[in-house]
Write a structure and sequence with these properties.
Elements: H1 2-33, H2 40-47, H3 51-57, H4 61-85, H5 90-101, H6 109-121, H7 125-151, H8 160-180, H9 187-202
Helix pairs in contact: 1-2, 1-4, 4-5, 4-7, 5-7, 5-9, 6-7, 7-8, 8-9
Length: 211
């Protein structure tokens, strides 16, 4: 009996590993070709497997794409939780969240993926739902760190949820501009805008951030 359970566990582990490999390959292909232009055949070629094997794990291309986006969201959500609940002052925690949200460069893979997902969300309801969850996760993280700062007496903000929405809307617009036109808006200037807006929302000086 134990041997049977062990065999089942081993097969399940192998299946999970294969699915993870396919999801990572899907992410790479999507970043190269875009969501709309990615085919199952492209992903199969990237990992040197048959399309049939991919369909064994994921019934359709849409299911595969959705699973890849959700896996990416889960990783980023877990990281956000660590930043929000980590050590440091309220200003330090807010600074970490802002820096996590802002892309590291114009070629930041996470942001390129989500910008592409926003476009696909106009037509694909499953992608639209994941994008909504991404926005909700980010807004919740911002609201949580602002509310904690208010409770600790470091911030002054009567409406943390509203403050989170305003910071989010401003950053989304600036990040799109930065991604498309890096010569017009540098990352340093973008971070400066983020610090200025966040400081105004929580009643502190921009100098309270680490710079």
């Amino acid at each position: 009996m134990r041997r049977v359970d062990s065999a089942r566990g081993s097969r399940a582990d192998q299946a999970d590993q294969r699915r993870a490999e396919l999801l990572e390959a899907t992410r790479r292909v999507v970043l190269e070709r875009g969501l709309a232009n990615t085919r199952v055949a492209d992903i199969a070629k990237a990992v040197n497997v048959s399309g049939g094997l991919i369909h064994y794990h994921f019934a359709t291309k849409d299911e595969l794409i959705t699973a890849m986006l959700r896996a990416t969201l889960d990783i980023e959500s877990a990281r956000l939780d660590q930043l929000v609940t980590g050590e440091g002052s309220a200003a330090e925690r807010l600074d970490r969240v802002l820096r996590f949200y802002i892309p590291q460069s114009r070629s930041d893979q996470s942001w390129l993926l989500w910008i592409d997902a926003w476009n696909a969300a106009l037509r694909e309801s499953a992608v639209r739902q994941i994008v909504l969850e991404l926005e909700t996760t980010w807004l919740r993280a911002l609201e949580q760190v602002i509310s904690a700062g208010v409770a600790e007496g470091d911030f002054t903000c009567e409406d943390p949820a509203g403050a989170a929405e305003r910071i989010d809307a401003m950053l989304d617009g600036l990040i799109i501009r930065y991604t498309l036109h890096p010569s017009v808006l540098s990352r340093g200037r973008l971070l400066e805008h983020a610090h200025m807006a966040a400081a105004r929302e929580v009643g502190i000086s921009p100098d309270a951030f680490s710079g």
